[in-house]
């Protein structure tokens, strides 16, 4: 988590508290902002973890999870560091306006797809039974005869079209206005889909990933100004924001507290893994899931407290990783299930 002046924008791996101009938020406004961010962070973790249990059983290709192996986990902090530094150089060399225009169009498309996927289960429940739900197929092939190959084969129905239509309206709203509500709708959709569809294959892989990103976050926040520079320049819905001056200025408020999606998704996929481990034990309890979930609340609350107290940039994973990994491991040690936890593999 980083404390940045002058309309900062959050990035994918840290939370940012931006102050617009010299406006000083009220204590109530600040508490409302951070409380709302905490709630918004918990929602995709909780529901994404629940959905991750059953998504591997889905027959839909779009719902199949992407499994992260130990090799992927070890390389991820290096790839993230290269990407972050690359963005830093881009913002230093090229015009910030044009880069953010390209990024806005890229996340416009991704955001529509993510929000549509998030809305789909809800639409299935509210879709009127008397309205025909027609089936469609988008098929692109290459070649002909026996050598014909499928390039794109996407099946959808009327409900999916409605979801895409609504998501497109939100997308246009975001691109034109960059409104914080539109940003949050896309951000929540990204986070929920990330927790649901990104699966760690075992607890050891989770420890490698979180440990590596722990070092990554601490280095780029405390060791350099790269993280903060990119955070201030990057305009994309890869953060959740909430205005601290909402009580004074309403929906036009601009003094944002921000939380990067990386601080939600990275611990979230580990918490979801522990829920699937709970299910594998077949004891009808969710002890490890609730322990890690409460640990996340503690870690994020501690991050906000330290940042607010010392008025200094704080990498959120510095507090989230020890909490989310340490508490469940200590619980497993206490219950005598530590070996079982680390030998278990999530076969998705």
UniProtKB/TrEMBL annotation:
The keyword Cell division does not apply. SMART domains: PSN. It is found in: Endoplasmic reticulum membrane; Membrane. GO terms for biological process: membrane protein proteolysis; signal peptide processing. Pfam families: Peptidase_A22B. Its main location: endoplasmic reticulum. It is a multi-pass membrane protein. The chain crosses the membrane at residues 31-53, 73-91, 97-115, 203-222, 256-275, 287-310, 316-334. InterPro entries: Peptidase_A22B_SPP, Preselin/SPP. The keyword Glycoprotein does not apply. Keywords: Endoplasmic reticulum, Hydrolase, Membrane, Transmembrane, Transmembrane helix. Signal peptide: none annotated. GO terms for cellular component: cytoplasmic side of endoplasmic reticulum membrane; lumenal side of endoplasmic reticulum membrane. One of its GO terms (molecular function) is aspartic endopeptidase activity, intramembrane cleaving. Belongs to the peptidase A22B family. This is Minor histocompatibility antigen H13-like. The gene is hm13.
């Amino acid at each position: 988590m980083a404390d940045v002046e002058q309309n900062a924008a959050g990035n994918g791996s840290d939370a940012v508290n931006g102050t617009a101009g010299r406006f000083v938020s009220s204590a109530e406004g600040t508490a409302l902002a951070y409380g709302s961010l905490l709630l918004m962070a918990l929602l995709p973790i909780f529901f994404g973890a629940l959905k991750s249990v059953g998504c591997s059983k889905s027959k839909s290709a779009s719902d199949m999870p992407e499994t992260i192996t130990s090799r992927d986990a070890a390389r991820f902090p290096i790839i993230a560091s290269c990407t972050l530094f690359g963005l830093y150089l881009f913002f230093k060399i090229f015009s910030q306006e044009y880069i953010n225009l390209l990024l806005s169009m890229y996340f416009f498309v991704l955001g529509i797809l993510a929000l549509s996927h998030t809305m789909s289960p809800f639409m299935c429940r509210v879709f009127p039974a008397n309205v025909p739900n027609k089936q469609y197929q988008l098929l692109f092939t290459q070649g002909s005869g026996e050598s014909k190959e499928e390039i794109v084969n996407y099946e959808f129905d009327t409900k999916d079209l409605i979801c895409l239509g609504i998501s497109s309206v939100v997308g246009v709203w975001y691109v034109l206005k960059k409104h914080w509500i539109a940003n949050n709708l896309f951000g929540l959709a990204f986070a929920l889909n990330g927790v649901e569809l990104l699966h760690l294959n075992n607890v050891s892989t989770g420890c490698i990933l979180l440990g590596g990103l722990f070092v990554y976050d601490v280095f780029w926040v405390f060791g350099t100004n790269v993280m903060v520079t990119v955070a201030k320049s990057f305009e994309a819905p890869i953060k959740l924001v909430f205005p601290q001056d909402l009580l004074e200025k309403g929906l036009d408020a601009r003094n944002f507290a921000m939380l990067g999606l990386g601080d939600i998704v990275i611990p979230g996929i580990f918490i979801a893994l522990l829920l699937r481990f709970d299910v594998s034990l077949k004891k009808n309890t969710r002890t490890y899931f609730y322990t890690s979930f409460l640990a996340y609340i503690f870690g994020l609350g501690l991050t906000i407290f330290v940042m607010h107290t010392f008025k200094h940039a704080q990498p959120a994973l510095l507090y989230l990783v020890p909490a989310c990994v340490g508490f469940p491991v200590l619980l497993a040690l206490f219950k005598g299930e530590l070996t079982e936890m680390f030998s278990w593999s999530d076969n998705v």
